[in-house]
């Protein structure tokens, strides 16, 4: 499975805002995303993993 395009670089508007801890911020975002994927909200139909048939 391909990870898709590299998104490791900040956009100009993201650079302009700045961050005290960009690495920590990125790690927190990824951890929250994984938590939502592994433990989806049962009331949110777009939450969690989907099969390729569901994404069409």
Structural description of this entry:
The two termini are 17 Å apart. The chain is built from 2 helices and no strands. With 56 residues, the protein is mainly α.
Q: Notable features of this structure?
A:
41% helix; mainly alpha; 2 helices; 0% strand; 56 residues
In short:
This protein is mainly alpha-helical and 56 residues long.
Q: State the low-pLDDT regions, or none.
A: none
Helix content: 40-55%
Mean pLDDT: 77
How much of the sequence lies in strands comes to under 5%
What is the terminal separation in angstroms? 17 Å
| Biggest sheet character | none
Query: Helix/strand/pairing class, anyone?
Result: mainly alpha
Please tally the β strands and state the result.
0
Topology record:
Elements: H1 12-17, H2 22-38
């Amino acid at each position: 499975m391909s990870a898709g395009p590299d998104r490791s670089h900040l956009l100009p508007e993201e650079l302009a805002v700045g961050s005290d801890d960009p690495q920590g911020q990125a790690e927190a975002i990824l951890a929250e995303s994984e938590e939502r994927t592994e433990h989806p909200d049962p009331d949110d139909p777009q939450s969690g993993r989907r099969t390729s048939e569901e994404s069409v």
